[in-house]
């Protein structure tokens, strides 16, 4: 795996302001952008379902939390030994198929966290305690949509603490076996993804999205995880995908989509990869302000990118997040660009 952190950085050029004659009316002086505040849930809310890989029935409760808690999982079953596991890159045990968080003291884990984390990040939830009585987040329908529904049903409240973020200062790139993931400076969080699969039903697809609650709900949250029929025997032999079905994944056989209802988006596959990236990037512990680009990237590569970013103090700065920082990505007009 190759890590790059180039010395050169991308900076916005600014021209000096013109001096107007006194007889001209100058434009109003712009006011400092308002610092955003942290958010949590208003009420607890629960769900249950089957773990995609473990195949076990799992119940989960999303609870309000105080400012500074962050996103934290708590195992409530005997096997979990009460482990409290922050959603932080240092706790991640990432594979090609999912992102798992681990507690080294007890050995307890919580797997396939990325779809829930993507929903929390996109909806702006900073502090939450997630009680879970099994080793994996329920798959639900394989997307983030059920978790967004839970968040909206629970409601949100603003906390009396400023929201902070990681601002990307210079390009950071990681590469492995022809795959690539990078972050460069920019306003807001923009996610750009490209995939290239041999399966005819998938092929080559790309998308770019400015991550906001509205764009996530409109264009990303319903995209489901997917798998290839040819890979299923190998996965099952490894004890993976034991809870997978046509109810919680898109299954592809060459040029054929086996799900009765077909696809939710024409390019659902790449949109789901963008969803995964949003969840993986949240392991930075704070929102990332910058432009992410992934080419055939994986959970493992996304995790390596977060690690490379935070391990280089010259590549990132911790800032109080302002509305301007969070929304200036609207230069992309919140439109999803697709080229299949």
Automatic annotation (TrEMBL):
Zn(2+) binds at residues 115, 272, 276. InterPro entries: Ribosomal_Su5_D2-typ_SF, UDP-acyl_GlcNac_deAcase, UDP-acyl_GlcNac_deAcase_C, UDP-acyl_N-AcGlcN_deAcase_N. GO terms for cellular component: membrane. Pathway: Glycolipid biosynthesis; lipid IV(A) biosynthesis; lipid IV(A) from (3R)-3-hydroxytetradecanoyl-[acyl-carrier-protein] and UDP-N-acetyl-alpha-D-glucosamine: step 2/6. One of its GO terms (biological process) is lipid A biosynthetic process. It is an enzyme of class 3 (hydrolase). Its EC number is 3.5.1.108. It catalyses: a UDP-3-O-[(3R)-3-hydroxyacyl]-N-acetyl-alpha-D-glucosamine + H2O = a UDP-3-O-[(3R)-3-hydroxyacyl]-alpha-D-glucosamine + acetate. Transmembrane segments: none annotated. Pfam families: LpxC. One of its GO terms (molecular function) is metal ion binding. The active site is at residue 299. Keywords: Hydrolase, Lipid A biosynthesis, Lipid biosynthesis, Lipid metabolism, Metal-binding, Zinc. The keyword Metal-binding applies. Its cofactor is Zn(2+). Belongs to the LpxC family. PANTHER family: UDP-3-O-ACYL-N-ACETYLGLUCOSAMINE DEACETYLASE 1, MITOCHONDRIAL-RELATED. Catalyzes the hydrolysis of UDP-3-O-myristoyl-N-acetylglucosamine to form UDP-3-O-myristoylglucosamine and acetate, the committed step in lipid A biosynthesis. This is UDP-3-O-acyl-N-acetylglucosamine deacetylase. It comes from Insolitispirillum peregrinum.
